[in-house]
Design goal:
This protein has 347 residues and is an alpha+beta fold. The chain has four domains: 119 residues, Nucleotidyltransferase, domain 5; 35 residues, no CATH class; 96 residues, ATPase, nucleotide binding domain (Nucleotidyltransferase, domain 5), CATH 3.30.420; 71 residues, Actin, Chain A, domain 4 (Alpha-Beta Complex), CATH 3.90.640.10. The chain contains 13 helices and 19 strands. The strands form five sheets. It has a six-stranded mixed beta sheet, sandwiched between helices. It has a five-stranded mixed beta sheet with strand order 13-12-11-17-18, sandwiched between helices. Strands 5-4-6 form a three-stranded antiparallel beta sheet. A hairpin with a 4-residue loop joins β11 and β12.
């Protein structure tokens, strides 16, 4: 239970929950809901003495991706669900915390941060140090499959098995949860970013057209699918012809994108099968009854639930508002002290 002192402190501090994703960072404020949902992108300018100067963070920085000149670079400091650039990640977290937290508050916030299951102890420490350096009073970590399950509305505290597949930007997190803990879990670095790269590579190889990752993401959202559709979708795509070097426009179909995504989708299916094989028999019975819940942006890929359903012969459902499931679960675990003690990683 929280002490009286902690409760009094809490009255003067806007505690924050951060879903620090490879593609997007979502910040929720205790008792108030989502305050920030912006791309995990930072635009930097290199100074003459070799130092990095932050020009923009979030939406403004993402608009610069692929469109900067030599002196400016727009980067994503999170790669495959882990910190690729500690200094820039620290600045990004600091920016979001300052943007959300009441500047007039004289007490720093407690911060709950969601991290992938596969993070090493060194990487976990780096995440915590980033938040502390950004002004957090206290930092807790919660693993992504647990946050996704809580955010999807599953009863994680009961002695029954629930299976969640969270497909984010950098990683896919699969977890079997019972009695407030992860019984079986697996993290693979195949998710939305790999989907985008697969589309870039396919269009380059098949149509000799070079496109950027932003265009690939737009294609994925507009016509992407994991299985053949009854009515094929089509769209026009602009890019640079790899052979002539001239600008060109081609028409591609959902069938093209299904072919492009075949391998990464298969890898997610194989990881799910592995988790099911490792699940204890008693919990497996619960999963047969409860089904599998999909969360994260990748859950929105057309027919992915059907693909996995046919692969593992179990019910598969997409959570309500899957993009915000992890953020909701992270925020809820901060708001409820009993969940904080069981779900958070204390180090």
């Amino acid at each position: 239970m929280a002490s009286i002192f902690d409760r009094i402190i809490g009255l003067f501090s806007n505690d924050l929950a951060i879903d620090l994703g490879t593609a997007n960072t979502i910040v929720t404020v205790k008792g108030k809901g989502v305050a920030i949902n912006e791309p995990s992108v930072v635009a930097l300018k290199m100074t003459p003495n070799g130092k990095k100067k932050i020009l923009a963070v979030g939406k403004e920085a993402k608009e610069m991706v692929g469109k900067t000149h030599a002196g400016i670079v727009a980067i994503r400091p999170m790669k495959d669900g882990v910190i690729a650039d500690f200094d820039v990640t620290q600045e990004m977290i600091k920016y979001f915390i300052k943007k959300v937290h009441n500047r007039n508050s004289f007490i720093s916030p407690r911060v709950m941060i969601c991290v992938p299951y596969g993070l090493t102890q060194v990487e976990r420490k780096a995440v915590k140090e980033s938040a502390i350096s950004a002004g957090a009073r206290e930092v807790f970590l919660i693993e992504e499959p647990m946050a996704a399950a809580i955010g999807a509305g599953l009863n994680t505290q009961e002695p029954q098995g629930n299976l969640v597949v969270d497909i984010g930007g950098g990683t896919t997190e699969i977890g079997v949860i019972s009695l407030g803990g992860l019984v079986v879990s697996k993290s693979i670095r195949v998710a939305g970013d790999k989907f985008d790269k697969a589309i870039v590579d396919y269009i380059n190889k098949t149509y000799s057209l070079q496109i950027g990752e932003r265009t690939a993401e737009e294609i994925k959202i507009a016509i992407g699918t994991a299985m053949k559709l009854e009515e094929e979708l089509k769209m026009l795509v602009k890019g640079k012809d790899r052979i002539s070097g001239l600008l060109n426009t081609i028409e591609i179909s959902s069938e093209d994108i299904r072919e492009a995504l075949k391998e990464p989708v298969k890898e997610i299916g194989e990881a799910l099968k592995q988790v099911l094989e490792d699940t204890p028999a008693d919990l497996a019975g619960d999963i047969v009854e409860n089904g599998i819940i999909l969360t994260g942006g990748g859950a929105l890929l057309r027919e992915l639930d059907k693909y996995l359903r046919e692969l593992v012969k179990l019910p598969v459902y997409v959570a309500d508002d899957p993009l915000l499931a992890v953020a909701r679960g992270t925020g809820k675990s901060l708001e409820q002290i009993e969940l904080l003690s069981s779900a958070a990683i204390h180090e």
